[in-house]
């Protein structure tokens, strides 16, 4: 994540959505669901994807993505939270 965050804005969501959303030029959308509890990255029967070029559907996916994005925290903040607190000697 650290390396990726140097070239793109990365955010963290505490809940495991299992959902990926790709919006291309606000006219093409791909949403996919991967079962978050899968033991590995192999495909399961619960995995599904939807591709659309229908403007109203694309717009709804964009709103869903924006809502998730706005409620996510920047990855830098999350990494700071996960770092062990340094011990200060007195």
Protein model, in words:
The chain has helices at 55-71, 75-82; strands at residues 11-12, 19-24, 28-33, 48-52, 73-74. The chain is globular. It has 2 helices and 5 strands. Strands 2-3-4 form a 3-stranded antiparallel sheet, covered by helices on one side. The protein is of the alpha+beta class and 90 residues long. The protein has one domain (4-75). Strand 2 and strand 3 form a beta hairpin. Helices cover 28% and strands 23% of the residues.
Number of helices: 2
Taken as a percent bin, the fraction of beta residues is: 15-25%
Radius of gyration: 17 Å
Q: N- to C-terminal separation? A: 34 Å
Give the total of domains: 1
Residue-averaged pLDDT: 81
How many E-type strands? Answer: 5
H-E string: EEEEHEH
- Strand arrangement within the widest β-sheet reads 2-3-4
Helices and strands, with pairings:
Layout: E1 11-12, E2 19-24, E3 28-33, E4 48-52, H1 55-71, E5 73-74, H2 75-82
Antiparallel strand pairs: 1-5, 2-3, 3-4
At a glance:
The protein is 28% helix and 23% strand.
Features:
5 strands, 3-stranded antiparallel beta sheet, two-stranded antiparallel sheet, alpha+beta, 23% strand, 2 helices
């Amino acid at each position: 994540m650290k390396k990726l965050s140097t070239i793109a804005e990365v955010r963290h969501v505490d809940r495991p959505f299992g959902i990926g959303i790709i919006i291309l030029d606000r006219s093409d959308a791909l949403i996919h669901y991967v079962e978050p509890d899968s033991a590995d990255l192999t495909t399961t029967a619960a995995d599904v994807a939807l591709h659309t070029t229908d403007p109203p559907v694309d717009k709804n996916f964009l709103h869903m993505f924006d809502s998730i994005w706005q409620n996510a925290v920047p990855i830098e903040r999350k990494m700071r939270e996960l770092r062990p607190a340094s011990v200060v000697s007195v």
